[in-house]
Design brief:
This protein is an alpha+beta fold. It is 44% helix and 14% strand. It has a three-stranded mixed beta sheet. It has a two-stranded antiparallel ribbon with strand order 1-2. Helix 4 crosses helix 5.
């Protein structure tokens, strides 16, 4: 038995072609919000825990050395032993501890940095964010370019852009339509990962006198 072979030679590899996948060709990962470091709350909690633990350890060591316990620890032990559970100070301390714990939990599970809007990721290893105030200034400049707009205030939120414009000539409907078109283009050029919705209001300037 004989096998037929293809006389056509295999194509030579193209030196200008790179078959190795590059990072830019990889699918972009989901864009998430930036997480705050929260150095101040962490430093405060660490300082309080360190101070309390150090003071308690010093007092325990003093008692072990046949010295008298500190007055605050004796009063605290007596109070915990004699006060009923429905005492005002006991309930107040428990509520304060619960609120402090809830605050720490909220800080632990929420990203924070609400002023930073995440931008679209063109590369997997690069993350970019835009300050909400800077985005508002850019959109306000866009609004001021529309014919008929005398002044404009732009407030950029995480999910909505609120625009209040004052028009001193032209029909308000026309100015509003042009503003929505210009601002939609401006929002798209900001390259935000989650483009906010537009809420445009146009009014006449207040009458003088």
């Amino acid at each position: 038995m004989t096998t037929a072979t293809d006389p056509t030679p295999a194509p030579a590899p193209d030196p200008g072609r790179d078959d190795v996948p590059v990072l830019a060709d990889a699918p972009a990962s989901p864009v998430r919000r930036f997480w705050a470091v929260r150095r101040i709350p962490a430093a405060l909690v660490a300082a309080l825990v360190l101070a309390g633990a150090g003071l308690l350890l010093y007092d325990v060591a003093s008692v072990r050395a046949d010295r008298t316990a500190m007055a605050w620890r004796r009063e605290l032990a007596d109070g915990l032993a004699t006060r009923p559970l429905d005492d005002t100070f006991v309930i107040g301390g428990a509520v304060l501890a619960v609120l402090l714990g809830l605050w720490l939990l909220v800080l632990a599970v929420t990203p924070g940095l609400r002023q930073i809007l995440p931008m679209r990721r063109a590369h997997a290893d690069i993350r970019a964010g835009l300050d909400r105030e800077a985005a508002g200034l850019a959109l306000r400049d866009r609004a001021m370019e529309v014919s008929g707009v005398q002044s404009a205030k732009v407030r950029v939120g995480r999910s909505k852009v609120a625009v209040k414009a004052v028009s001193h000539f032209r029909a308000l409907d026309e100015v509003r339509a042009d503003l929505e078109t210009a601002l939609a283009t401006g929002v798209d050029e900001l390259a935000l990962a989650h483009p906010p919705a537009l809420n445009v209001r146009v009014a006449r300037p207040p009458r003088k006198g």
